[in-house]
Amino acid sequence: MALPAILTNAKPAAATWRALGLLAILLIVLFVFSGRVSMVQVMDNARQAAPLGLIALGQALILLMGRLDLSVGATAGLANVVLAASFAGNMDNMATALAITVFFGLLVGLANGILVVVLRIPAFLATLATSLVIAGAILVYTGGSPGGSIPAGFRVITEGWLFGILPWSVVIWTACSLILLVFVHYSLKGRKMLLSGANARAAQRNGIAADRMVIFSFVLASFMATLGGILLSSITGMASIGIADTYTVDSIAAAVIGGALFSGGVFLPAGVAAGSLILFFLQSLLYVLSLPPAARFVLQGSIIVIALALSNFKKDR
Amino acid sequence: MFEGSLRSNLLTSLPALALSALLIILTAYMSPNFLSDSNLTNLSSRLLPIGLVALGEAMVLFAGRIDLSVGAIMSLATAIMALTSASLGWLAIPLALGAGLVCGVVTACGVNFLRINPLVMSLATAAIVKGVTMLLLPSPGGEVDYAFYDMLFGAERLLSAPLIMSLIAFIVIAVVMNWTRLGRSIYAFGSDPRAAFANGISSLKIDLVVFGMSGMLAAAAGIVLSIRILSGDPLIGESYTLDAVSAAILGGVALQGGRGNAIGVFFAALALVLINNTFNLLDIDTSFQNIAKGLIFILALVLFMRGKAEEH
C-alpha cells in the first residue's frame, strides 16, 4: 500500500476523537475531585481495565461484522476456571495450562461461528445458547466449587510493571490493539473483513468468502475473550464461577462508546480502548462515591442508550 | 373464518403441538407419577410463568422486534411483590404490573425515538432494570403473603387456577392478534414496516403496545413466580429470557416478524415445561439441565429457522 494511503487510514476517526475527548474530560473531573494528579494512579486503573479492554476488542470485531456476541463473558469465565484448574498453582504447568485454556477458547469461537454461518442461527441467539452451555459445563465440571490457583510467577503479567512505569497488562493490551488495528486496516484479509462487515452481499459478489470471515471473526473474538479471562485470572489469582458475567454487557458498552456501529463495517481499536477506560473509570467513580454495586448495572444500560442515541443522532444529520 | 394468512399462521403451531403431544406420551409412559394430581398441578403452576413471559415475547416478535429484558423485568416484579405485598396487600400486584409496563415503554421509546436496535435497547433496559432490582432487593428474600399462594396454587387438581389463567391469557391474545384491527396491524407491521406505514399504521403505537404488553406479561410472570416461591429473588428471572425466546421460536414465530401464532407458543411453552419436568422426574442434575436446555434451544433454532434467514 502506498504511504499516503497508509497515512489517510491512520488518521483517527471522528468517533475515536470523541471517545478520547470524553476520556480526557473524565480524567480531569477525577483529578479535580480527588485533588491528586498522578500518572501511576491512571496506569494502575488501566492495569485493572485491561481484561475489559481485551474482551471489548473481541466484541468490536464481532460488531465489525454486523453481529453481536453474547458469550464473551462466559468465555472469559471459562478461561478463568480452566486456567486455574490446569495451572494448579504450579509454574511448571504454564505451557500446558495456557495451551488448554486457549484451545477451549478457540473451540467456543468455532462453535459460535458454525452455529451462525453453517446453521444460519442469528448470532445473538446462538451466542446466548453457547453461553448457557458454557455456564452449565462449568458447573458440571467444577461441581460448584472451582479449584486450582494461578502461581505468583505468572501473576507478574498483571501485577508487574515494565521499568516501574508501565504495567505489563497495559503493554499486552496496547500490543493487541495495535496488532488488530494493523491486521484489520492494512492486511488483505482484514480489508476483506471490513468489506464483508460493511456489506456482506457486495463482498460476496466481489468474490470474498464473507461467511468464512464471520467464522474467523468469532474465533478471533473468543480468543480475545480468553486472553481477557487469562488477565482477569492473573488479577484475582484464583477461579470463581461467574466472575466475568458482567463483561458481556460491559464489552458492548465499551465498544459502543468507542464508536462501534451495529450496522457493521467499523473497527476502531483506539476508540474501544478509550471506551473501556471510560467505563472502568465511571465504575470506580461509583465505588469512590460508595454507591451500591447494583448502580453499575444502571450505568451500563444508560451508557449504551446514550452512546447509541448520540451516534444515531449524528447519522440522521 | 380460517382463510389466507390466518390459516398459514395457525399451521405454524402444528410442530409445537406435535412435540408437546409426543412429550406427554413419552413422559407418561416413562414415569407413572406423571399423571398424578400433584404432578399435573405442579406442571400447570410452572406453565403459567413461562407461558406468560413467552406470550409477551411472541407479541414483540410478531411485530419484528425482540425483547431481551423480560427476564430482568420478572426479577423486578418478584422484588416488588416481596417488598410491598405485606404492606400494600393486593395493591402490590398492579404496582408490579405498572413497573413492567414502564420498563416496556422505556424500551419502546428507545427503539422508536432514539432508533436504537431493539436487541441492544432491550439489553440496555435489562441492565438498568437489573440494577434497580438489586438496589431494591440485593439478595433473595422478603416475603409474599401466603394468602396469595393459597388463592393461586391451593387446589390440587388438573383444572387448577394457573392452568385456567394460562388458557385465558393465550386465548385472549390469540383472539386479539387474529380478529382485531390492532392485532392485524401488529402482524402487518412485522411483515413489512414500510408498507404498514404507508397504510397509516403508526410505528410508535405498535412499539408501545408490543413492548408494553411484553413488559406487563413479564411482570405478571414474575408475580406468579414470587407467589410460588413466597419471596423475591433479584436474579431468578435471568434464565427465563432464553426460555421465552425459545418458546416463541419453537411455537413457529418467525424472528423476522409477521408470522406465528399464540396457540403455537402455548404448546411450545408446554413442551418446555414438560422437558424440565422430565429432567426432574428422571432426577437429572440442574447443571446438566442448563447444558441440555442450551442444546435444545440450538436444535429448535436449527429446525425452525433454517433457510428463513435467507428469505430475508
Automatic annotation (TrEMBL), chain A:
It is a multi-pass membrane protein. Keywords: Cell inner membrane, Cell membrane, Membrane, Transmembrane, Transmembrane helix, Transport. The chain crosses the membrane at residues 15-37, 49-68, 94-116, 123-141, 161-188, 209-232, 252-282, 294-313. GO terms for cellular component: plasma membrane. Its main location: membrane. It is found in: Cell membrane. GO terms for molecular function: transmembrane transporter activity. InterPro entries: ABC_transp_permease. It holds the Pfam family BPD_transp_2. It comes from the Bacteria. The complex is composed of two ATP-binding proteins (LsrA), two transmembrane proteins (LsrC and LsrD) and a solute-binding protein (LsrB). Part of the ABC transporter complex LsrABCD involved in autoinducer 2 (AI-2) import. Probably responsible for the translocation of the substrate across the membrane. This is Autoinducer 2 import system permease protein LsrD. The lineage of its organism: Bacteria, Pseudomonadati, Pseudomonadota, Alphaproteobacteria, Hyphomicrobiales.
